[in-house]
Design brief:
The chain has 129 residues and is mainly β. It contains one helix and nine strands, in the order αβββββββββ. It has one domain. About 10% of the residues have low confidence.
Length: 129
């Protein structure tokens, strides 16, 4: 096996408003909302990135990290009743071309959250946001 074959290379990004999939030469990484979750008066959040995805095609994947999994309330949440608010977490994809960061946001009524999942060789995590 050559040194190049040992490396995990990002090949494609697939996005559907609630999740991203990153296809590499070794796996498909899933990040985002799963299942129906929520409740009658709740709207599922969204997932986004401010980075330019095409810049990371061909990048070597080095690591995946969760940032702020305590779901720190966003400053805008002060406009909500106690127990409500904007919740979020960040996922950092570390590559040889730099850090690619994704954010998962949910703005709910304080009663119903939505399940999120990160599933990869490097990291698997499930939680409610």
């Amino acid at each position: 096996m050559t040194q190049l074959e040992d490396k995990e290379i990002i090949e494609e990004f697939i996005y559907d408003n609630w999740s991203y999939k990153i296809r590499t030469n070794k796996q498909v990484i899933f990040m985002g909302f799963v299942g129906d979750g929520g409740g009658c008066c709740s709207v599922q959040g969204f997932m986004t990135t401010e980075d330019t995805l095409k810049d990371f095609i061909g990048a070597e994947l080095l690591d995946i990290n969760l940032i702020d999994m305590d779901y720190t309330a966003h400053p805008l949440s002060k406009n909500y009743k106690e127990g409500e608010g904007v919740k979020f977490c960040f996922i950092d994809i570390i590559t040889n071309k730099g850090k690619l960061q994704f954010a998962i946001y949910n703005d709910h009524n304080g009663y119903y959250g939505y399940d999120i999942e990160i599933n990869s060789t490097q990291l698997t995590h499930k939680d409610t946001l």
